[in-house]
User: What shape does this take?
Amino acid sequence: MSGLVAYSIGDDESWMIRNSIFYWMLDRLADDANEAVAPKLREVSDNNLGALWLDEFDESELTELSRLAHALPSIARRELPETSEREGIALRFEELAAFIDAGGERRR
Assistant: This one.
């Protein structure tokens, strides 16, 4: 199974990653998120919802989520176990940050 990040249900564009990494990502982002974004991330993680719908974030929350996503590759390189997959996961997080930014530009 994979965790999904998309702007809305039925959106042709999405970002996906293995569930275990998806939930690690949500929890790690929530640790650094502001009081508006953290509960939304924790709700998805705590309830194993499997998808993060970005259209549920207002513009300021999306800006915060973008900031967090841009920090995620370096966090992954520092905190994930040293395996052959770690660098690939960090690169996928770079793609996530670009995905969030591109969708935010679309909404403006």
Remarks:
- The radius of gyration is 13 Å.
- Residues 2-107 form one domain.
- The longest strand covers residues 2-6.
- The chain has one domain: 2-107.
